[in-house]
Every structure is written in C-alpha cells, then in structure tokens.
Amino acid sequence: MKAIQVGLLGIGTVGSGVFKVLQRNQEEIKRRAGRGIEITMVADLDTARAEAITGGKAKVVKDGREVIANPDIDIVIELIGGYGIAREMVMSAIAAGKHVVTANKALLAVHGTEIFEAAHKKGVMVAFEAAVAGGIPIIKALREGLTANSIQWIAGIINGTTNFILSEMRDKGLDFDVALKDAQRLGYAEADPTFDIEGVDAAHKATIMSAIAFGIPVQFDKAYVEGITKLAAQDIKYAEQLGYRIKLLGITKRTPTGIELRVHPSLVPAKRLIANVEGAMNAVVVQGDAVGTTLYYGKGAGSEPTASAVIADLVDITRLHTADAAHRVPHLAFQPDQMSSEKVLPMSDVVTSYYLRMRVADEAGVLAKVTGILAAAGISIDAMLQREAGEGEKQTDLILLTHSVREGTMNEAIAQMQGLPTVLAPITRIRKEELA
Amino acid sequence: MKAIQVGLLGIGTVGSGVFKVLQRNQEEIKRRAGRGIEITMVADLDTARAEAITGGKAKVVKDGREVIANPDIDIVIELIGGYGIAREMVMSAIAAGKHVVTANKALLAVHGTEIFEAAHKKGVMVAFEAAVAGGIPIIKALREGLTANSIQWIAGIINGTTNFILSEMRDKGLDFDVALKDAQRLGYAEADPTFDIEGVDAAHKATIMSAIAFGIPVQFDKAYVEGITKLAAQDIKYAEQLGYRIKLLGITKRTPTGIELRVHPSLVPAKRLIANVEGAMNAVVVQGDAVGTTLYYGKGAGSEPTASAVIADLVDITRLHTADAAHRVPHLAFQPDQMSSEKVLPMSDVVTSYYLRMRVADEAGVLAKVTGILAAAGISIDAMLQREAGEGEKQTDLILLTHSVREGTMNEAIAQMQGLPTVLAPITRIRKEELA
Q1: Contact (Cβ atoms closer than 8 angstroms) between residue A12 and residue A86
Q2: Which domains, ranges and CATH numbers included, belong to chain B?
Q3: What distance in Å separates the CA atoms of residue A299 and residue A284, rounded to the nearest whole number?
Q4: Mean pLDDT, chain B, as a whole number?
Q5: Which of A264, A349, B163, B188 could form a disulfide with B183 if both were Cys (CB 3.0 to 4.6 A apart)?
Q6: Option in B238, B308, B357 nearest A146 (CB)
Q7: Which of B239, B338, B431 is nearest residue A264 as measured by Cβ atoms?
C-alpha cells in the first residue's frame, strides 16, 4: 500500500524532531501502522534550513498554502504556532479535506470550538496529543483510556519551564529572578518567557483537558491564570517546613455548582508523587470515580518528546484509514504479518548490576579474597557496606553493589565466593536496576 | 441507535464492578461512546448472587455458552480467569463472531498467540486493557500513545500484593512472613498467594507488555520468574542505607542480542519516582527513544479500577462500530451533540485551602486579631508556623495553613487582615491542594 503522504508546516524544533524520528523509526512505525508514513512536503520561511534538515527527501516550499493545495497530501501537520497564520492554515487544510495534526495549544484553547466544528462537518480529524504535556499520551488517556469514569478532577504540572524554575528555587534557595536567568541560560526558558512564567501556557493546556474531561467547550477566557513571578524563596522554605512543595498546577475540577478551571502556584503535600516531579518534567494526576487516582509522567516539551506525540497522531489516523475497522489497532501493537522473531534471552545472558550480601568471618583477608574473585571475573564494584561486628561477634555482613555484568558470569563468581571458607552462609543476590 | 448488547461471563469482584460502573455512569459513557452500552446477559455459577447484583436488569444464566449463543450479544466480557473454561469460552465467542473483552492475563500470556490469530481471522477484537496494571491505561499507551518510538525498556510494579508487602516490610521492618499475614488479613493477598508472591502474576503481565513493546509473540515460558518470598528485612534496610528501595519489577528490555523478559526483586534508586510507589499501587516506566522516560501510575487491581479498564475497552469497540471512521474518537471526547453547558466558575467561587504568610509586628495580641478575623469569616486554621523574631527584631513572619473555604470569603478576610496596623506588608497568599 502507498505510504500516507504528510505535509509539514513549520520545521523548527518540533518539526525537525518529527522528521528525524519518522526517518529513524520508519520501519518500526510502518510495522505498527500497517502502512508507511512519509513527509513529502515541508513549508517553512527558512527554506535553506528546511532543505538542510530534509536533505532532499521532501519538497520544500515557502508557503503552506502550496502544501494544502497538493491533492496527494493526506495529513497536514501544523507546527507554526500562534493564532494568526496557524489558524488560517488549519482552517484551510480542513476545508481541503485534509486531516490535521497540531501541537498548537494556544490555538485550540482559544479557537478550538470553531476548528473542531469545521473538522466534524468535513469528516476529518484534528489530532492534538502534542498540545498537552508533550510526549505523555494524556489526551489519549483522557479521551479513550478513562472513558468509564466520571472524572472528578485533574491537576497537572504542565509547564516544564516553570517547574524547572521552581525546582531550582527549592534546591538552591534561589529567588525567582535568579532562577529564571539560570533557566534561560540553560535553554529551559525562552528569551521572552512571559507565556510560561505567567501561567498562560499551562492555562491553555488546562483548558483543553477541562473540555475533554467534562464535555464542555474550550473556554480559555474563563480560566483563572496566575504565574510564579511573585513567588519568594522564603515561601518555598516555609512550605517545606510544613511538609509541602510549591508547584505551578493547572487544575480543573467538577463541583456541584460548576467547573473549576485555574492555574496558580499551589502547595502540594511533599509525600504525593506529583510533588516529587522535578526539573522540566511534566505530570498529570487524573481522579476518576471508578479508577481512583492515576498519574502520567514524562517530558512535556522538547524536539523528540513532542515529535513522539505528533507521530502517534499520524499513526492513529493512518491506522483508521488503512486497517479494517475490526483491527484498527493490532492486538499486539504490530501488524500480525510484521511480528519479529527476535529471541527472548535466557536469564544467564541478561546483563544487569547486583546487590550481594554475604555473612563473612570478621577477620583479615576476607575482603581481599572476595574482591579478588570479582576482579578476576571482570566484575567491578560500585559501592560497599560492611556492618561493624558487635563486641565479641566473629561474623559480620559484607554488602557489595556491582556494576553491570552478564548474569552467567555473576553466577560463576557467586559459586566461587560461596566456596570460600570465610563465607559462612548462602550469599544473597538481588539484582539492581538504575532505570536511568 | 440501539444500545450495544454485552454478555458478562463471571460476575465476581471485577464483574460486579463493571456492572455497577456501567449503571452509575451510563449517561456519561453514552455521551462519550455515541451509543448506549448495556449488559443484558450474565453467566455465573452462583446465579443467586448474580441476580442480587443485577437486580433484574440482565438475564442471568448458569452456562456461558448460552450467552455466546445469543445472536443479540455484540461483545462478550470474560472474567472467569484461568486457562480452562475461560479459554474455551473466549475461543467460542470469537468463533461466534463476538468481540471479546478480557482481564485474563494468565490466559493471554500463555495462549495469546492462538487467541489473537483466531480473532484476526474472524475479524473481531480481543481487548485486554484490564489484563495489565488494572485501571492504568498502559496497554493503550504502549499500543497507541508511543507508536513513534523504538521502545528501549519497560520496568513496572505490576503486582499490588507484593508491592504492599514490600512497603510493609520497609515501613515496619517486618519479615516477609509477617507482612504476608498482614496483607492477607487486610485483603491485599489471597488465601493462596502463590501466584502473586512467586512473581507469576507479574510475569504474565510483563510477557504481554513485552510482546506489545517489541512485536514478538507472547512467550510466558521464556520469562525468568523470581518472587519475593526469600527477601529478608535486613536486605531492605541495607538497600536503604545505600540509597535504594527494593521493588518487585517486571522488566523487558531490547538488547543487541535479544529481548530480556524477567521478574525479580530489584534495587531501585530511592530518588526515582517509581521507587516511591507505595502500598498496593502499580506503576510502569516506559523508555522510548524519542519520548524518553514516561511513567504511568494508578491502582492495579480492585473492583472498580479494573472495571474502568474493561469499560474503556467496551467504549473503544463501540466507538469503532458506530461512529464514522473519521470520528472514531470525538475531538473533545464527548460526541459533538452531547456537549455540556455546565458553567466554568469565577475564581471567587472556587473552594480551596490556603497558605498565608504575613509580616507582623512582634507584639502581644497580633495572633488574636488575625485569628479573630478568620474565625468570624468561618475560616478554620489547619496549621501555624511563627518564625522566632531575631534579637532586637520587631517584626516576624506568621504563616497559616487554612482548611477549605470559598475564595471570595478568603479575599474579604485577607482585605480585613491587611487593614490591621500590626500587619506590616502585603499578605502573601498561595493556594493549597491536598490532591487526595
């Protein structure tokens, strides 16, 4: 089957990420989607940059209207941003019968009603997973994963810039102005950071989640928006003493009298998982009446994380337009004729790191023998802990953390150490995963 | 449009949850799905119990084959469990052209290949969101939300019983046997807990995730499975001293030589979010090459959390068979003609709790005046912190945490307190969200 033809409007940070990831993972994506997905046309004012990124693999033009006018294009990705030309392009693409994928939260939070109506009438999809929380599939979770629930509330860290600044303020006791400058220097905040630090970006996203959760139209004008610019380092400190962290939360909640929709700094109990989301990461907590509390965490911005969401939307659209209805999503994610025969490794071939605890005689030379066996096997030690033997005690616990090694190698080393006369009990071995 | 007719096989803990949630949220679910979803037939050996739960709203029979033979039934939910009769019923339902929704991880991990093949040939869906991590939409995230990615690894706390036991062991310094008895007494572990504590249940789930992530067939027989029965309290303590927590992880990883698939206790750095998942909660970390690290957290078991996943599958199937292809999922989750006009509240009508910091004169009577104003407004105080004034200092900080109150009421109280001559600077007010 012919590949789905995609036109890309705007090849900046996110756009280039979409192009790169589609290239890099094209085989795997095709095995999932049941059909190739190709960006065949790119519109960007900076055509030289666009040519450099696409390397001749897509036709580059200056004017997005050329992309929309091309009858071969099935899907248009809008990554221009803002309300002006982006809105015009999205509406034209819909009018031309193209499906649209966009990351433009501002556009949807303000003009969503008009856009979705037009799309519905025309019978095309406007997909926007990338508009909220970057690579985290939170739109999918809300629209599809939690459909059984009456959603009670959503609270999210949905702006990475402000979460980075707040983390810096807390970690280093910095005032807002200083932390902002750090964030700008490190690329976590833009030269004009207003939309982020004043809470506007978070409010766009909260507005979209509110509509999806409660079945109300997008109404950004009704959102209460307060940023983090007035936060003082001392408040973060006092909050800490009281057992809380301060986070900029986007909140929407169903109450008996109406829907709450608000963005402002919030004290959150330090023991909550979301209070421990640090740096530029995002997380959204959703409370449903059946499911209880769920949380979704990941990178909320950046080139490839956002591209991940844009491409997921492309695959969604592709699957709907290629597979037979009953198999929109293949049972095991990949098309049945595209399964891999890659083998599952036996445990002895797994490579991981280890915690070892051994009961040893409290005498000279024990450690040398143990570490000698490990060194001979090429196993290096990451950390060590020796419990001090109590008075009169002749045994003690020796605990080692190792670096990564093949399990088979570790098995042999353990057998050898177990054979030492100074190792007095069966060695305890627990695997260690850094998950980094 | 006529409601989708669903037949339920097995109305135990999860089945009764499915029935209850479908009843309770039927209007909202219909607004999302575009069509009613009704359980019209239930098969259970305990027909008296089934009658009591369904209250005459569904036909109750003893034999699941009657449900499958009913031509009016569109979808069959299998909640029998195990490999025997459940397998027979699932295969018969597929053969009869019914879509199947199941929470049966054991069945899919062992017989998934046969089942999915039969479903594919017959053109029906076998949906199984509830089979892994209960109410967390992790199957959807992997199959649809992260399709852009080459998945690198998945590591999950996917068995609530063992995570509860490990949390108890750590919190209270208990040995495994004692913590297990506690878990059994509290209903977190079954009378025969073998499948949970030996890691078999987690391995079933890891096997399913492995297949979806890497496009390989389900192959439970290749999984390495080690439970938590041999864990000693002292290892949890030593791990803690080294900066780690011990969790039972289901891990699957792509390596240059093959796929790792293993379940065993693992040391995890205490600073990782997943290390802080306590009690019977589940969490899954997915590492993709584009999106980076994402995490999904929620209840992994229980009547309504699992029902949440089962019903999400029902809605998925319903949407695919009713809406036009282009609008399988409505843009804003609810059908366009089913949007609510519920109003968004002005900020003054929002009810929340507060952190207040005020710069006050360090003299007698200040606190009485402040608390007097709050009491008169009906605002009760949750906690208080007063910074000790330094030597010679005549001012100090007074910090109050309040219970919930209407924002409008709080605004008035703040204005009054601000008017006190002993309040020396603008009062800082930050909202507080317990998120519980």
Answers
A1: no
A2: 4-134+304-338 (3.40.50.720), 138-299 (3.30.360.10), 347-432 (3.30.70.260)
A3: 11
A4: 95
A5: B188
A6: B308
A7: B431
